[in-house]
């Protein structure tokens, strides 16, 4: 009986060591940022912590100059992207490997859908009816001015950098003008929500 117990305990210890070895992690010497398709949650958690810390830190700074939190989020994305931190060797390949971006994008789209749904529930249609004329004038002016600036900028850009065989002049002007004049709707919703302007 004692020999059987010892054998059973030895087998249990071997299985425990094997499970711990297969689990991996920092203590076992593995790179926690290594992307594994069988376990994508690990790199996703690292990305989430980095994004939240970056945006919250910037939000505290921008709150002192009374800027919406969404501005800090946009700037945080720029800093974590190829413009700033992405220039650090192997930063993007390690923290934001291309294979992990679909998972991050999926969670971001789910969060965006939920946010837009909650925002729509807070909208008071009566506010838009009372300020219909002002809303139309401001919207048109807010689109025409950036559209004109975009077209003006697109003219020298087209002649300097674009091959006429790849894109027509008119379509290029239209594309640049529309791209500059359209405000990202989710960003606008974030600003209106934070300033409590949807229900007033």
Automatic annotation (TrEMBL):
<dbReference type="InterPro" id="IPR006153">
    <property type="entry name" value="Cation/H_exchanger_TM"/>
</dbReference>
<dbReference type="GO" id="GO:1902600">
    <property type="term" value="P:proton transmembrane transport"/>
</dbReference>
<keyword id="KW-1133">Transmembrane helix</keyword>
<feature type="domain" description="Cation/H+ exchanger transmembrane">
    <location>
        <begin position="58"/>
        <end position="198"/>
    </location>
</feature>
<feature type="transmembrane region" description="Helical">
    <location>
        <begin position="41"/>
        <end position="63"/>
    </location>
</feature>
<dbReference type="InterPro" id="IPR038770">
    <property type="entry name" value="Na+/solute_symporter_sf"/>
</dbReference>
<feature type="transmembrane region" description="Helical">
    <location>
        <begin position="100"/>
        <end position="123"/>
    </location>
</feature>
<keyword id="KW-0812">Transmembrane</keyword>
<feature type="transmembrane region" description="Helical">
    <location>
        <begin position="135"/>
        <end position="157"/>
    </location>
</feature>
<dbReference type="Pfam" id="PF00999">
    <property type="entry name" value="Na_H_Exchanger"/>
</dbReference>
<keyword id="KW-0472">Membrane</keyword>
<dbReference type="InterPro" id="IPR050794">
    <property type="entry name" value="CPA2_transporter"/>
</dbReference>
<feature type="transmembrane region" description="Helical">
    <location>
        <begin position="169"/>
        <end position="192"/>
    </location>
</feature>
<dbReference type="GO" id="GO:0016020">
    <property type="term" value="C:membrane"/>
</dbReference>
<keyword id="KW-0406">Ion transport</keyword>
<feature type="transmembrane region" description="Helical">
    <location>
        <begin position="70"/>
        <end position="88"/>
    </location>
</feature>
<protein>
    <submittedName>
        <fullName>K(+)/H(+) antiporter 1</fullName>
    </submittedName>
</protein>
<keyword id="KW-0813">Transport</keyword>
<dbReference type="GO" id="GO:0015297">
    <property type="term" value="F:antiporter activity"/>
</dbReference>
